Amino acid sequence: MDVEKVTEVAPEVDDDGRVRTGTVWTATTHAITAIIGSGVLALPWSVAQMGWILGPIALIGCAYITYFTAVLLSDCYRSPDPVHGKRNYTYMDAVRSCLGPRDVAVCGIAQYAILCGAIVGYTITAATGIMSVVRSNCRHYKGHGANCSQEGTMYLVLFGLVEVVLSQLPSLEKVTFISIVAAVMSFTYSFIALFLSAAKFAANHRAYGTILGSKIGGPGGVSAPTRTWNFLQALGNIAFAYTYSMLLIEIQDTVKSPPSENVTMKRASLYGIGVTTVFYVSLGCIGYAAFGNDAPGNVLTGFDEPFWLVDLANVAVVIHLVGAYQVYAQPVFACYEKWLQSRYQESAFFHREYALRLPGGRAMRFTMCKLVLRTAFVATTTIVSLMLPFFNAVLGLLGAVAFWPLTVYFPVTMYITQAKVPRGSRKWLALQALNVGALLVSLLAAVGSVADIVQRLGHVTMFKTKL
User: Fold this and answer.
1) What angle do CA 243, 246, 247 make, to 5 degrees?
2) In this predicted model, what pLDDT tens digit does every residue of 336-363 receive, in sequence order?
3) Which parts of 292-425 fold into alpha helices (H)?
4) How far, in Å, CA of 83 to CA of 238, rounded?
5) With b meaning 16 or more CB within 10 Å and e meaning fewer, what string describes 416-432?
6) Which of 284, 365, 429, 451 has its CA 20 to 30 A from that of 208?
């Protein structure tokens, strides 16, 4: 009997000794997962502030800018040559390689500010989700005319307590499962929101909304300053919904070659941003058609029935944000803990490990530094969330902070430096025009969001969140 000899093919090792197996499809999946988040829930409200013309234009315009700068950033994964140069494993590595240490410091400040801000936004959104579950059940069983207003202070604190426990996990690698669950949940509530909006639109038998969006004065209108701030804030919300650049280099680092990583990543960005844009335009426009200028800041809070489906969507929001909080917080923990441990090398507070025995024979190891400082960090973000319980304003401010520096400025500047684009050439002028335009949009969105926060602070009771 002949026995066929099977030769095991060893996986190809890249030039840095690592094995990468990512393809254009895995990179596309990562890109979609990175883009779609809780910001999607604010899109119908954002379109309502802009109207039927400027709303869709803003959604498509932000998508195009995000894709264009993603293409530029893809060429910076390797430097100085985009195909054969040295690999940059993170966004900050690419900035360091192309621009130098001063820009790395600015990039780091922007990145960690956005991470901390997103954590505050996630805490507010999670409490809103829990309040929505309680309210929808109340209206279902007591009738839609019942007084079911909810106070979210307790829910914010409970969410914070959960994050205190999860924050003791050693590192980002240990929250991989949480991250996967969070991604599944984000798709769940996003599609439920689209389905509920489409069902309401069909039941109305007409499309609501106006050409210019929310009205100034009169019945159902708002004051001129509020209209202005809301319009600018909506720009920030849309920009936040497309946040992606921070993770592009990390996703590209999972891709195998040939073809070269930048070619694969450009295709993945096209597919990922394309799919996301179709979904965003659909939800933003269908949600606006369903609610008109009365679209709620968080579209899920506009539904009560079917209560079980609304509850499922809001529970998915909470589960997603429990995981997303850790995905954003762990890099912050790693940053300051690494600095403190190197600075105080002999201190037991930073280096001595303690073990807490868990059921099943396992043990959770921690240092007093992690226990005290991580708990203090979670407590601080929870207190800030209690002081600023404004879903749309916080999202708008985050989008304003992230959009110009991380989505436009650094990718454009790195590309100009690496590609040696001649100063004063048409290409250089066009890229700089994009830079200036994005800066203006970010500044206007930031002004609108801050003004709205200041305006709302005069009408709320501190440390009292209501729905």
Assistant:
1) 100
2) 777 777 777 777 666 676 666 767 666 6
3) 307-343, 348-351, 368-369, 375-387, 391-402, 410-418
4) 33
5) bbbeebeeeeeeeeebb
6) 451
